[in-house]
UniProtKB/TrEMBL annotation:
Domain SUF system FeS cluster assembly SufBD core: 197-424
Domain of life of the source: Bacteria
InterPro entries: Fe-S_cluster_assembly_SufBD, SUF_FeS_clus_asmbl_SufBD_core, SUF_FeS_clus_asmbl_SufBD_sf, SUF_FeS_clus_asmbl_SufD, SufBD_N
Domain SUF system FeS cluster assembly SufBD N-terminal positions: 17-185
Family per similarity comment: Belongs to the iron-sulfur cluster assembly SufBD family.
Gene Ontology terms describing biological process: iron-sulfur cluster assembly
Protein name: FeS assembly protein SufD
TM regions (residue ranges): none
Any Pfam family: SufBD_N
Organism listed in the record: Skermanella stibiiresistens SB22
Length: 454
C-alpha cells in the first residue's frame, strides 16, 4: 500500500489545482498495485506542494517568468491522448532514410500509441518499450532506477512529473549490447479534444549497462492550435564505458508550454552527448544536469535555439565533475528575432577531488531585431586546483560587411541573411555525431529560415 503524506501548510493558489487533479486521478494511474510506485508518486506531489512554482527571487529562475504558465487552468490529458484521427503515421518525423530498419515509439498527449509505433529487431536482451508496458514486464528494473537519478528539492517540474507518472519510454541495454539504429520517440501535443488546456507528464528512463551503446532521438511537435503543457523528465544511468547519444528537437505549437528535465549518472569512462534543437513553444525550458561519477567520463552538451515573435526559450545546464580526469564541452548558439527572449544558464562544478578536470563552455547569440533579448549567465564553481576550465558568452547582430559582400555578388537580402544565420548555427549543429540526425536537424534549420521575414 502507498504511504500517506500529511502536510498541514496551505499551498500557493497556483499549486492547488494540481493537487486537486492529483487527488482525483492518483488511484487510477497505471501500476496502482505497486506500493513502491505509489510511494514515489506521493513523494513527488509532496515535493511539488512544498516547492510550488519558483519566482524571480529564485536565482535559477531569475530570467524566466512562469506567470503565463501559472495563469492557465490545465487539466490532465484524457486517456488515449487527443484527437487520434488527426495523427497519421506517414506524417510523423523521422531521421531514418526510407526503407531502413527503425525503432519508433509514438505518444499523443503523453499516452503511448501502439498503433502508430513500431519496434524493429533488437539485439538479444535489449528492451525498448513504453513505461506502461514495462510496469507489467520489467517492474523490478523500474523499482531499482525510476525516480532515483538527480532528484532534488529545487525542481518542482521534476516533482510534478513524478506525481503524475503514467507513461513514457523505457530503454534497457544489457552489458556490451549496442543498438545500431536510432531509437526515435515522437511526442505529439494536441491540446486535448476540447477547448480546455491539457497537460501531460511523460517519463523516459534509459539504463545503459557497461560498454553498451545507443542513440536516442526525441521529436516534440504540436498539432492543432490548442494550448497544452508538456512536462518531460528523462533519467539516464550510464554504466562503465557506456556510450549514449541523445538528441532532441522541440517544435511544439506556439501556444504550448514545454518543460524538460534531464538528469544523468555517468560511470567510469562513459560517454554522453546531448543536443537540443529548440524552435517551438510559447515558453520552454531545457534543464540538463549530468553528474560525472567516474574517472575518464566524456560529456558533451550542445544545442541551437531559434525563436521569434513572443517566444521564451530557457536553456539551463549544470555539469557536475564529481571525479577526476573527466572532460566536458558545451556549445550553444541561438538566433532571436521579434520580441522573443532567450536564456542561457550554464554552470560547471568541479568537486575538491576532481583534479585534472577539463571543462569548456560557450554560448553565442545572434539578435535579429532591436527588441530581441538574451540573458546569458555562464558560471564556473571550482573547488580543485589542478583543472583547465573556461567559458564565454557573446551576443551581436548580423555583420553588415558580410551582408554587403553577399549582396554585391547578386544574392538577395533574404537569401544573404539566411546564409549568414545558417553558417552561424552550423558550428553547434556539427556537434551532433550521428550523420543522419545532423542532416535532419540541418534541414529543420533551413525550413525554419524559410518561414522568417527578411
Amino acid at each position: 500500500m502507498a504511504k500517506t503524506v500529511t502536510i498541514t501548510d496551505t499551498p500557493a493558489p497556483a499549486v492547488q489545482p494540481y493537487l486537486d487533479h492529483h487527488g482525483r486521478v492518483a488511484s487510477s494511474l497505471p501500476g496502482g498495485d505497486l506500493s513502491w510506485l505509489g510511494n514515489l508518486r506521493a513523494e513527488g506531489i509532496a515535493r511539488f506542494r512544498k516547492q510550488g512554482f519558483p519566482g524571480a527571487r529564485v536565482e535559477a529562475w531569475r530570467y524566466t517568468n512562469l506567470r503565463p504558465l501559472e495563469k492557465v487552468a490545465f487539466e490532465p490529458a484524457p486517456a488515449g491522448g487527443g484527437p487520434s484521427a488527426a495523427v497519421s503515421v506517414d506524417l510523423l518525423p523521422t531521421v531514418m532514410p526510407a526503407g531502413q530498419p527503425s525503432h519508433r515509439l509514438v505518444f499523443v498527449d503523453g499516452a503511448f500509441r501502439d498503433d502508430l509505433s513500431s519496434i524493429g529487431t533488437l539485439p538479444e536482451g535489449a528492451v525498448v518499450t513504453s513505461l506502461g508496458h514495462a510496469l507489467n514486464s520489467h517492474a523490478d528494473l523500474l523499482e531499482r532506477h525510476l525516480g532515483r537519478v538527480g532528484v532534488t528539492d529545487s525542481n518542482p517540474f521534476q516533482a510534478l512529473n513524478t506525481a503524475f507518472l503514467a507513461d513514457g519510454v523505457v530503454v534497457h541495454l544489457p552489458k556490451g549490447v549496442a543498438v545500431a539504429e536510432p531509437i526515435e520517440v515522437v511526442f505529439i501535443g494536441t491540446g486535448g479534444v476540447s477547448e480546455k488546456p491539457t497537460m501531460h507528464h511523460p517519463r523516459i528512463l534509459v539504463v545503459a549497462e557497461a560498454n553498451s551503446e545507443a542513440t536516442l532521438v526525441e521529436h516534440h511537435l504540436g498539432q492543432g492550435v490548442g494550448t497544452y503543457f508538456a512536462n518531460h523528465v528523462t533519467e539516464i544511468v550510464a554504466g562503465e564505458g557506456a556510450r549514449l547519444h541523445h538528441y532532441k528537437v522541440q517544435r511544439e505549437s506556439t501556444l504550448a508550454f514545454h518543460m524538460a528535465t534531464v538528469t544523468a549518472d555517468l560511470a567510469k569512462d562513459a560517454s554522453y552527448d546531448n543536443f537540443v534543437l529548440t524552435m517551438g513553444g510559447r515558453l520552454s525550458r531545457n534543464e540538463i544536469k549530468p553528474v560525472l561519477n567516474g574517472t575518464g567520463v566524456e560529456c558533451r552538451l550542445s544545442g541551437a535555439y531559434m525563436v521569434n515573435g513572443q517566444q521564451h526559450c530557457d536553456t539551463t545546464t549544470v555539469i557536475d565533475h564529481a571525479q577526476p580526469h573527466c572532460t566536458s564541452r558545451e556549445v550553444y548558439k541561438g538566433v532571436i528575432d521579434g520580441t522573443a527572449k532567450a536564456v542561457f544558464q550554464g554552470k560547471i562544478i568541479v568537486r575538491p577531488d576532481a583534479q585534472k578536470t577539463d571543462g569548456y563552455q560557450l554560448n553565442r547569440a545572434l539578435l535579429l531585431s532591436d527588441t530581441a533579448e538574451i540573458d546569458s549567465k555562464p558560471e564556473l564553481e571550482i573547488y580543485a586546483d589542478d583543472v583547465k576550465c573556461s567559458h564565454g558568452a557573446t551576443a551581436g547582430e548580423l555583420d553588415d560587411d558580410q551582408l554587403f559582400y553577399l549582396r554585391a555578388r547578386g544574392i538577395d537580402l533574404e537569401s544573404a541573411r539566411n546564409l549568414l544565420i545558417a553558417a552561424f548555427l552550423a558550428d553547434a549543429i556539427e556537434e551532433v555525431r550521428i550523420d543522419t540526425v545532423r542532416e535532419a536537424f540541418q534541414g529543420m534549420v533551413t525550413g525554419w529560415l524559410k518561414t522568417q521575414r527578411a
